[in-house]
Amino acid sequence: MPEIQYFNAVDSRDEMLASLKKDGAIIVEGVVDKSFINSLREETDPYMELSRPGQDEFSGKYTTRTGGLVSRSSKCRDLIQNQLILDMCDGLLLEHCGRYQLHLTQIIRVKPKETKQLIHKDKWAWGNDLNHLEPQLNTIWALSEFTNENGATRVAPGSSTWEDKREINEEEIVQATMKLGSVLIYTGSVFHGAGSNESDADRIGLNITYTLGWLRQEENQYLSTPPEVAKDLDPKLLKLIGYSMGNYSLGYFTPPGDPGELPEVVPPQYAVGLKESPSFGYVNYEEKESE
Ligand SMILES: [Fe+2]
Questions:
Q1: Is the pTM for the entire model greater than 0.90?
Q2: Rounded to the nearest whole angstrom, what is the distance from the C-alpha of residue 205 to the centroid of ligand 1?
């Protein structure tokens, strides 16, 4: 029988990373407590309650998705920067990039009557051209308990290297059951899908995902958290959500203005008032002294 390994937050990060690379998924229990979840839910429930279900089988006709959580939730901002998760990102994603970035934030509420989602790889968001590398690390934080009955995520452990067209048998799938405050961490390459909800309560998870700094983000962070909102956030978070160069030349911009009024080529963090030089890239500007 395939298995997902369970860890506690204090366990060895190296062992977590080794299991994640081998199986494509791990569960870490007890990372945040109930009061943290309650505070997060207070911030996000008003948005979730009014979110409409999906339009097709894949997104789920009894499933709601609520995004834009960098702007909407301080507790979500904490989870995005959770050190355990960033350690896993370091180990998985820095093999293929100088900097990784936030990919999406989404509360996924699977309601009663929802049927199981098609098994898939999340990296298919970019098509089928990324089979030679791992472009993505994903988390689903359990905002409710995840049980076999209420639709805990179905995962095929060890499937990260399986071909896209491979048939997946039921015996190769396990459900990521977990308690509130635990987190399922999985790669962009592992086959998985939401389970069916045969209970009478919602299954609620918070999906926060990360990708290589040189790939297009699934949730457009610049529009979900535009500069006028972003400028008040923690600089480290800003860089993580994309207000930073994605590679030597990726992501610069030229601010609009009269000839000579503003620097010609600046990094994205210029838009949110961060003054320090980019850590890489050909952009180089000097701040004008304020007059
Ligand atoms: Fe998925």
A1: yes
A2: 12
